[in-house]
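Response to reviewer comment R2.3. The reviewers asked that we include at least one raw input/output pair. We reproduce the pair for DUF4395 family protein here without editing.
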Amino acid sequence: MSVSPAEPRSVKPRTARPDLDPRGPRFGAAITAVLLLVVVFLSLTGASVAALLLLAGLAGLFAWGAFAGAGRHPYGIVFKKLVRPRLAPPAALENPAPPTFAQGVGLVVTLVGVVLGVAGIDPAVGVAAAAAFVAAFLNAVFDYCLGCQLYLLLLRAGALGGAGRAEAGR
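Raw output as returned:
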């Protein structure tokens, strides 16, 4: 059955992603930081194939978080099932958009390292892993998310859509 242009289509509204416990992304950032440090170590010791494979795996995890959302990331699921039940409730929940955007930034950084590594530029694997490590370390240890800050900056500048200015002040 075709719908004529005059008839409005029934569009199923997108369900909003639930707010996140801010400790979940920090938990994931800690695991990611350790794995990225392993990539840097492997890269520096000449195990470039192992470093490239691990960075490719991390790029896959970043892709998962960027496309499925930070709350559906495997580390987030582990946090929700195993860690959060043992903690006191969080003081506040956070919007999942900035951590999800941060996952996309991590994806871009690690993907550049993977592509350059596959192209034969082995040092790029370690450099990309080191750059991503700095961001993951800052998030895990100091609760400072570089990707989230970039998200808010772009939102305030209006680069991420019209509704951004109101949401940026949240």
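The chain has a mean pLDDT of 88. The chain is about 65% helix and 0% strand. Further pairs are available on request from the corresponding author.
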